[in-house]
Amino acid sequence: MEFITDREALRQHYRAPGDGAVRKELRRLDRHAKGLLARSPFVLIGSSDDKGNADVTPKGDKPGFVAVLDDATIAIPDRPGNNRLDTLENVIVNPAVGLLFLIPGMNETLRINGDARLTADPALCERLAAEGKLPVTVMVVAIKAVYMHCAKAFMRSELWVSGTWPDRTSLPTLGQILRDQLALADNAETLDRSLDESYRKSMW
Which parts of the sequence belong to the Pyridoxamine 5'-phosphate oxidase N-terminal domain (predicted)? Predict the structure, then answer.
C-alpha cells in the first residue's frame, strides 16, 4: 500500500475548495454561532499531547452549558468523569483544541478551533454550576477559527433518523464489555447495576 506523505500529493486527489468554504471561517463568534452554542448540549473536544498523541473526548450537559465569555472566548465546565484527565492533561502541554458542537436533529455542526487553558477560578466555576454542583475546573478557549460544517456526514450516516438505529438489545452493555476487556470476576448484570448507581450519584 502506498501512502500520501505531502500536501501537494494530497491536493492532486481533490478539487480546490470553493470560495465560500474558505471565506466562511470567522475569527470571532457572530450571532449565529452564539445562538447555536446556546442550544448545543454536546461537544467533542479534540486535543493532543506534546508528543502528538491524540484524544477526542465528549462533554455534555443541558443546552447552553458552554458559556460565551466574549466574542473570542468560551468556557467549558468539566463535570465528574473517570478522572483519566486525558484532554485536560493534553492542554497543559499543548493548548490547541478542535471543538465540534452538535444539536440533536440538526445535521449541520459548529466547529471552533483555538487555544485552551484551565482554571479553577471560583467566580467562573460558580457561574457554570449545574444542579447546585460546581465544575472541578473550567476550560477557557481563546478562539482562532469559527465555522459551520455542512450536513453531508450526518445525512449519509442518517445519525438522527431513529428508524436506522440498531436495536439496543442487540449490542453488548458496558458491563459486558468491561467484564470481557478487564477479565473481571463480576457478572455483567452486577457491573451494569453498579454503573447505573454511579450515574445516578455522580452526574454532576
Answer: 30-150
pTM, to two decimals:
0.95
For residue range 46-99, what is the model confidence (pLDDT) as tens digits?
Answer: 999 999 999 999 999 999 999 999 999 999 999 999 999 999 999 999 999 999
Q: Where are the domains of the chain?
A: 16-157, 166-202
Instruction: Please tell me the CATH superfamily of domain 16-157, with its number.
Output: Electron Transport, Fmn-binding Protein; Chain A (2.30.110.10)
